């Protein structure tokens, strides 16, 4: 809140400052600083103090400028830093210390370029152009002025562009291209009129007057100086007015109107003294001194010349210093009691300065030529070195490319070799495996063919045996009924042989049935068992048979032919045993599902037997043997008078 | 980049080798696939033949058992018939 308030006060003072005198403004700014505002406001206040002090006390101006610079650097305020450099540069320019002002303007330009502040850059270019103009480096001056003009024209700032054009025209004038300078100034004056830029117009009129003066057209020159004086007086442009009076003085002096010239130079001197324009003061004082010499007022001339000389020494304005010595020489020559030593002294000083200026110019020119030559030589050497370097680099690049190529080639060859080796290895391995498999296949096929042949022979044999057994039965029956045998013993024997033969035929048929099937389903087995129970039922009148298959048992259950045959044989054996020995009323066969598989149970309600007392006969042993082949246990449970239960799980 | 004859030759060789590498890789893959297919086929056939063999062995087992049993029975029938013959002749 406090900062906001201070900012408002500062803005107020800044605006108010345009209509205040500098001392009041300085006090106001100091008040702002005393209130400890924000750093940015403080920097602005220091900069403004530097600006307002520049015409009052250059030391104070430098002090505040340096304070603004220091604070800007410590707070990294680039804008404030650029402004401080600019202000300090302007003070140096005011003190005619153009080299220092150039240095500070360049620092400003550098920061503005970093900030991409095009308007700030244009301003710095302009000031650099003017400073270089003052140090007679007209080529640099015109380059910087042109840069500034480009920016202002791009931004469409007619007023600033006009000022720059004016500066460029002045440079042309310094290069003694007066006609070119005059036409530029006339054009600029028209522009200034259009945009109501009266400061610019005053300066343009002054410059037009100067151009006419250089072209020896004193009438037009005087006319434009008068126009400039009128506008400057109307608007209070003190600096411009001082310049015009100085130039007007020179015009009168050329016309040998010494009194009018003295008046004009005096006016310029007074105005420049007020403005603390050292260069201008020195110039005006020396001009006045020369004029006083012309009018014979030697004492006045001496005072002014000495004043001009001292100030020119302070400001290092060599041209003015030389002019002062030349005028002092004349003064000594015109003086009534000529002081020869003084004449010799001033002559020596004049020559010294002239030599110094000459030497400076020669040295500068020689240095420039040398530098240019050295630069060209260096450039050539650099070019040659660059060419050599480029050639070496090219060779190196080629070698590198080839090396890389060869490296990749080696890798590719290795990779290809590896792939081909791998491919061959794979082929060999595959062929070997295929060969092994084919061998095994051939072996097993051969084995199968042999087995099939054996089976085929077996089948033929079984068929033959079956036919012979049938023939035996038929023969026995023929014998029995054809010869009407009454002997009971004989009849029993015949019946026994016939029954045994029939049993053999059934066994043969059952086995052939199993052999003809690749696998036996539970359904097949069920049908076979059912068929057997039916036959048993037919032959056993006092015994009831039942056969139950639990619905949960899958009929698609598959057994191998051996397994199926073994199960069938166990069931057959158990039923036969029940018929033969149990004297049971009923026999039941049950097939049910259990956790481990399928349970087959043959149960009778006969007389039973004691398994521990009974040595198992062929039937029971066969059943156990078959159960072992089935890899399962057979359970035989029997109690006297309670029947027998035979069960197995498959 | 500037290339001389040698560099161009190297890079051309590289391109050719790369083509060969790709071809070799594809061929290897094709061989692998074919071998896998053939192997599967042969294994299937082998399994089938093995199953067939197992079944034949079982059938032969049954046949052998039957033959033993039938021969025993035939021997018994023959014996009974001979006994019957003797009985008839005795009468």
TrEMBL record, chain A:
Q: Which residues cross the membrane?
A: 403-421
> Which reactions fall under this protein's catalytic activity?
ATP + protein L-histidine = ADP + protein N-phospho-L-histidine
The record ties this protein, via InterPro entries, to: HATPase_C_sf (IPR036890), HATPase_dom (IPR003594), His_kinase_dom (IPR005467), Sensor_HK_TwoCompSys (IPR050482), Sig_transdc_His_kin_sub3_dim/P (IPR011712), TPR-like_helical_dom_sf (IPR011990), TPR_rpt (IPR019734)
Q: Which residues form a coiled coil?
A: 359-402, 515-542
Q: Give the matching Gene3D superfamilies.
A: 1.20.5.1930, Histidine kinase-like ATPase, C-terminal domain (3.30.565.10), Tetratricopeptide repeat domain (1.25.40.10)
Check the record and name the Pfam families matching this protein.
HATPase_c (PF02518), HisKA_3 (PF07730), TPR_12 (PF13424)
Q: Where are the TPR repeats?
A: 82-115, 202-235, 242-275
Matching PROSITE patterns: HIS_KIN, TPR
Report which superkingdom the organism of origin falls in. Answer: Bacteria
**Keyword annotations from UniProtKB, A to Z:** ATP-binding, Coiled coil, Kinase, Membrane, Nucleotide-binding, Phosphoprotein, TPR repeat, Transferase, Transmembrane, Transmembrane helix, Two-component regulatory system
Supply the SUPFAM superfamilies for this chain: ATPase domain of HSP90 chaperone/DNA topoisomerase II/histidine kinase (SSF55874), TPR-like (SSF48452)
Look up the EC number in the record and give it: 2.7.13.3
Histidine kinase domain: which residues? 460-650
Q: Give the matching PANTHER family.
A: NITRATE/NITRITE SENSOR PROTEIN NARX-RELATED (PTHR24421), NITRATE_NITRITE SENSOR PROTEIN NARQ (PTHR24421:SF10)
* Name recorded for this polypeptide: histidine kinase
User: Which organism was this protein described from?
Assistant: Flaviramulus aquimarinus
UniProtKB/TrEMBL annotation, chain B:
Q: Tell me the keywords, alphabetical order.
A: Membrane, Transmembrane, Transmembrane helix
Where are its TM segments located? 6-26
The protein's name:
Uncharacterized protein
